[in-house]
Amino acid sequence: MAEQELTLRGAFARWDRQLFDAVARRHWPGADRVLPRLGRAANHGVLWGAAAAGIAIVGSAGARKAAVRGAASLALASATINTVGKWSVRRPRPLLDGVPAVRRAVVQPRTTSFPSGHSASAFAFTAGLALESPGWGAVVAPVAASVAFSRVYTGVHYPSDVLAGAAYGVAAGFLVRRLARGAEQARVVPGHERTAAGAPALPDGDGLTVVVNSGSGTAAAAGLDVLRERLPKAELVECEGSELAAELEAAASRATVLGVCGGDGTVNAAAGAALRAGIPLAVFPGGTLNHFALDLGLAGTEDTCRAVAAGHAVHVGVGRFTPGPQGNRPGYFLNNFSIGAYPELLGHRLRWAPRIGGGPAALLAAWRVVRAQRPVRLRLAGRPRSVWLLFAGNGTYQGTGPTPRRRASLGEGLLDVRLVLGGGRPGPRLLAAALAGPLTRSPVHVATRLRSLRVGDIPADTPLAYDGEYAPAPAALVLDELPDALTVYRPR
Fold it and tell me: Which of 429, 425, 407 is nearest to 416 (CA)?
């Protein structure tokens, strides 16, 4: 047995060396100029750090998340392969006989050969990126493969070193995704909402119509596979853009339960349709941030499928502003409503993003708001106020600042109202408000809980934002909270 193992090991070593020599002998037009430089650019992960930064600047929020996952995968692969990996095998570097001098590295590596750290880093970054954003992964994959090949081409690694490094990098990408999902699920904590008795149980999905925002991206597409498997009789309607509102209203008119798959803006539109039809809502998280789903305690599509099948649901409060964006009926918000700096920033970003990309648009919008924004003069509960930001949350948000992110319960039945008062420059004022306590009073930040708030004397052309959507504000409106207004599925 030992002799057979030695024979196999010797045969593999000969194959490895023969393939290495074949690459060295072959002439690759143009490669002498490109591949050695590409390999040097990947030293210490510089190439991949630059790629992550570039994706974060020009990409969407989902792309930025993917870039972070790629960087984390690279860090894991690099930290372990250059310690445990290389020193556990201690394979010598290949002899450079037959490798043209023009290809060789100026300074030869001093570490052991197996596995290839460059290949591990390249494929770890690509795998972490692709598992979150397949489009960006497809863009980066040819570069990663070229970096890996350059290690054989320049004579610093055997082909098996590169293959092992690449496999290790891909494994690191999957491990980081698993750890990240575990962390996301760990922070999904169900709130203290009141149980909704009598929500219909639909074990196979019969009676459920799910409107899917096909523009939400890969998260929505991945959730649909689970939905089809767990609730095979559910009706699925895929649409996007201007068709969405009409499809939601039509689905609500014929369904026992209205389902929605998309981000917070899509869920907002579905909640309005469900309220008007008087039916429960099933939320299948399919956006980038999914604030409402996370605060409700939904980690993903699997949770919602389980709740719908068992008939487990809760009552949640809904914020309302009257008149709404269409004038003839109220608008609703499941997360928050705002007037001032944030709607201005959102409007600039939405206007510029199609031309220059989401990242640059966000930076340019922030610079524009800080530089040119003026406080909004309006009347709150009959008193004149000058504010940089009026924020109203559907339920009390935890943490400090004017726009915190998490809520302990969606069934509280109160608006979390926060004001950043006018005066000075918007940047220092918003920063000072961010450092203030959650419900404290300071010279710049006022916070309280209310059932309703009347807002009047709103200047013309003032925008408002609700759940990430953007619309012009009316001259006057009323904000109020509708306790336990909406029934939403959530597992017990």
Answer: 407
How far apart, in whole angstroms, are the C-alpha atoms of residue 185 and residue 197? 26
pLDDT > 70? residue 439: no
Residue 90 pLDDT level (bands cut at 50, 70, 90): confident
Residue 162 has pLDDT above 80, yes or no: yes
* pTM for this entry: 0.63
Angle 403-405-408 from CA coordinates, rounded to 5°: 120
Q: Are 151 and 162 in contact (CB under 8 A)?
A: yes
Residue 404 above 60 pLDDT? no
The pLDDT tens digits for 334-383 are: 999 999 888 887 887 777 777 766 656 666 766 776 666 688 999 999 99
Q: What is the rounded average pLDDT for all residues in the chain?
A: 82
211 within 8 A of 259, measured Cβ to Cβ: yes
**The CA-based dihedral angle spanning residues 43, 48, 54, 59, taken in that order and rounded to the nearest 10 degrees:** 180
HSE on the CB side for 415, CA within 13 Å?
24
Which residues, 6+ apart, have CB-to-CB distance to 274 below 8 Å?
252, 258, 280, 281, 486
Give the whole-angstrom CA distance, residue 55 versus residue 408: 34
The span from the CA of 417 to the CA of 336, in Å, is 10
Q: Which residue has the tokens 């220092």?
A: 428
Helix (H, G, I), strand (E, B) or coil at 465: strand
The number of C-alpha atoms within 13 Å of 23 and in the hemisphere containing its C-beta is 22
Q: Tell how strand 383-394 and strand 376-380 pair up.
A: antiparallel
**Two tokens, residue 159:** 């082909």
> How far apart (Å, rounded) are the C-alpha atoms in residues 178 and 64?
18
CA proximity to 220, closest of 290, 270, 269: 290
Distance CA 396, CA 297 (A): 16
What's the confidence (pLDDT) of residue 283? 95
The bridge status of strand 397-398 relative to strand 445-450 is unpaired
CB 387 within 8 A of CB 340: yes
Residue 341: both structure tokens together: 């700096």
Q: Where are the alpha helices (DSSP H) in 278-337?
A: 291-296, 301-310
284 DSSP β-pair partners: 261
- In whole angstroms, give the CA distance from residue 460 to residue 4: 86
What number of CA atoms fall less than 13 Å from residue 404's CA on the CB side?
A: 22
Q: How far is CA 123 from CA 5, 51, 61, 164, in A?
A: 30, 13, 22, 11
Residue 189's pLDDT band (cuts 50, 70, 90): low
**Residue 198: burial class (beta carbons within 10 Å; 0-12, 13-18, 19+):** exposed
CB 122 within 8 A of CB 168: no
The beta-carbon contacts of 106-110 under 8 Å, at least 24 apart in sequence, are 108/156, 109/156
If you count them, how many residues does the chain have?
Answer: 492
